[in-house]
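Practice set, problem 2.
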Amino acid sequence: MEARDIFIVAVMAFSAIMLTYKWLSLYDNVDAGVIFFAFLLTISLGALIISLESRMMRMKEEFESLKRAIAVNSDDLEERLDTRFEKRIKLLDERLERIEKRIYR
């Protein structure tokens, strides 16, 4: 959570308080309970948005670490497959050489 996020939530809460106060004062019916609950609603909405943002950032970091792990594992798998193929090709080359020697005799 950054200071900017806290500032934005504070501005949201202040604007909700002022909007509710102005709206209720139009009808000469200012109620502190209504103003408090508007404040509480705005603060909880801001906290929810910040929570969602932090959760999305964590998921992004997890995906990036998973991507790195897959890349490392694929490199390791590629190396293992290369060594296996090289062994097989070597055996095939040796057999082909033996067959060629037999043919030329």
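Problem 2, part (b): a different protein.
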Amino acid sequence: MSVNLSFSWVFGRIFHSGFRYRDRATIIGDILGSVNSDPRGKTKTGIMRSANLSLEQTNKYIDLLLMCGVLKGVDPWKSQEIGRYKLTEKGFRLIKESQLWQFMLENASRTIR
């Protein structure tokens, strides 16, 4: 039996939502992974495309991540096509810790089988 442990499984009920296909933790993980993949940062449109979100969802999650201090606007006064978002130190720690938890849980699930 194969177990796929994702970011959302690690944090489970903390980010529980009513989404049918992806929960909030998975969407946040997709956004953080997208922003982390480009050293220059990502535009709002780039985040929207890579995380497969609508503009409304993208705005909601970016606002949440900005308030939590996980993302920062590199040049917020420019237009959405030029202004970029980058991870803060807190964002990098969140990604590292979630990957560590995922690794530990995958190893634990292998030993249980």
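Answer key, part (b): The radius of gyration is 15 Å. Residues 30 and 52 are 9 Å apart (CA to CA).
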